[in-house]
Structures are given as structure tokens and as C-alpha cells.
Amino acid sequence: MFNATFRQAKELMNSKGSVSIAFTDKPMTAKELSIRSLDQNTMKERQVQEIARQIYGNDETYTRNELKFRVGAPILMKTDESFRFFCDRMRDLNMTHEEKIKMMEVVSVTSKLTIKQMSEYIEKVFDMYAETVVWTFKESQ
Asked: Is residue 87 part of a domain?
């Protein structure tokens, strides 16, 4: 099973130049490896666009950083020790909320999330903004 999954990921990486790999208990096809992540990225970007448009004056950069800080960082801190260390040091600096949000511009968060973690992220964003954002797209899009 491992060799087949590894081979498929390697083939995908050779055809695309790079690929994120998430380990699962079942083999995934090359199609699943690429489309699943693409679907999640598309959904994440649609969430950013809606929240930016309705709450943050169309500022997608600020919205993306706010979501990285409020939603993505806590998820990533559970499994990434070096990221948790970084966040602990950031807390020690007594930065304002706005400074922390600005700091997110140079920090990779959502790109480091696994498929499962990204699903949790998307769900948390929907839950967090359920009462303040009118979603103009369907989750299945």
C-alpha cells in the first residue's frame, strides 16, 4: 500500500512540479491527491472573498491574515511544534491584535494544513461567521 501511494504522489509531483502529501489509512488516486486539495483551496478563497466583501471592506489580505490567525493558527499549533514555539514567542512580544494580524502576512499557515485540518478550518470559518456573513455560494460548489 505505501509503495503504491508513494509512487502515485511521485508521479503527480513530477507532472505538477510540487505536491502536498497527506498520509491516510487508504491509498488515494493521483486525482484525489490533487483535486481534493484544490477543492479545499477554492472553498477557502470563496470564504475569504465573502468575509472581505461583507465585513472588511473588500480587504482580502486582511481577511486572509485574520483567518490564518484566528482559525488556522490554533489548528496548526496542535500538531506543529515549531509553529507552536513561534506563536508562543509572538505572545511574549506583547503585540497588538493588528500587529499579530500583520505578522500573518509572512507566515505560512493554511498551506501547511493537512486535508483533515483544512476540512476543520473550513468548517470553523463557516461556524465563526454563521451569524454575520450571508454566504452567496453553496458549500458543494
From this structure: yes
Give the residue, 12 or 116, on which the prediction is more confident.
Answer: 116
Digit-coded pLDDT (tens) for 44-53: 999 999 999 9
Task: Give the count of domains, the chain.
Answer: 1
Residue 71 lies in domain:
2-128
Which residue matches cell numbers 502529501? 21
Q: Which residue has the higher pLDDT, 5 or 54?
A: 54
Q: How far is CA 75 from CA 69, 78, 109, in A?
A: 10, 6, 9
Q: Name the nearest CA neighbour of 124 among 89, 80, 78, 92.
A: 78
Read out DSSP for 87-113? HHHHHHTT--HHHHHHHGGGS--GGG-
Residue 11: inside a domain: yes
**Polymer length of the chain:** 141
Q: What mean pLDDT do residues 84-103 have?
A: 89
Residue 138 lies in a domain: no
Alpha carbon distance, N-terminus to C-terminus of the chain:
32
